Input
Amino acid sequence: MATLRRRMETCELSGSDLLPTQPGSAQRIARGTRNPFEVPSITPDAFGSYLVYEELGVGGMATVHRAEAPGILGFRKPVALKRMLPHVAKDPKSMRAFLEEARLASRLVHENIAQAYDFGVIGGTYFIAMEMVPGPTLRQIMIQCASAAGAIPVPIAIEILIQLCEALDYAHNLKDQQGRPLNIIHRDVSPTNVIVSASGIVKLIDFGIAKAERASEQTQAGIIKGKLGYLAPEYLAGRLDLRADLFGLGVVAHELLTGKRLFPGTTDCDVCQAVREKPIAPPSRYNSQVSATLDDIVLTALQRDPSQRWQSAHAMQVALRNAAREYGAGVSHRQIRDWAEWAFSQHSRTSIEIKQIAEPTPPEVSIVEHETIVERPARRASTLRNKTPRPIAAWLLAVLVLGIAGVGLWDAIDGHGIETLVRDLGR
Output
């Protein structure tokens, strides 16, 4: 604990998820240089029987590439191939952590969690073949919405959060072969670790730093893992349980609904201070479409006192389902997919010029017995000068009205005389 305090005082914590980041392959993907629903055409490299394509990301322990796994009769299954970096293999602790990740990933079998298919070593390089989830991360979606597509529809945001609750509820309650709770804590619930798949199913990924109570390799005391802007305040103080994941989910929820970073900062120390002390405004302050019920759900998840927070992912999920009813029937996977594809078809906004422009509107979320109805985006022509009436037009209108009234008044005076008019008005 003393070590943790010293690191906090000197702000030597790592893992902040600040934007903009340094340029790199993983960041280029996150910035949306290509449509995440499109698969690039690349000549593959061979890794054993795997065909390896473009790099999807790189971390301190491993790289991740899009790859294809071998199958019978020439069939190949798309996978995300995670390979340990050569220098990491020389460190026994890092090696055990990688093996523990593979062991833990093999236990997680759920629709909303990216699964592990294979694990082994080829040419001295350890690897994990995981489910390849085509689609953008929430971070990519948020950037695309800020730059081009506009706000995420609240019903879609709620459904994304519901699916994440399902993933966390499953992981938190998973048991070992003897029926004992594993108490798995993800520890890095953040937009970069959530993928909205091409089928509209939300996937929680990267359990690489997850903590299991019965894991063979426990995290070293005083080491904090995860992105600082999504870590629970008690975790920064060295205390950790399942409710820390719900705080991270609360941050994700707030940012989805507002389109703003909740705990920004230029340094790790700034972010940590914001997590501990920054007043948290309800999402409805920035998004009028957010209901009071939804405000309460998000603010409960963001309680700094864990005892005042949601006590389980299931409880938060039930509350979200109730809130969803205020917006109509539930959102289907197909609706999420259609909206996401539409969002990434929009081009970045440019400065308004004094000329006629066409403003696309997103497909409406219309629900009839869980069937998707996606309206074709309407095109509304507008001009800068037509957005607000000119003051001179208002004056001309006023003069015209007064003129008409004056003519009528003069006719009345001329026809009855001033005395008659005054007598009539006095009655």
User: Anything to note?
Assistant: The longest helix spans residues 391-426. The domain at 138-336 is CATH 1.10.510.10 (Transferase(Phosphotransferase); domain 1). The longest strand covers residues 50-58.
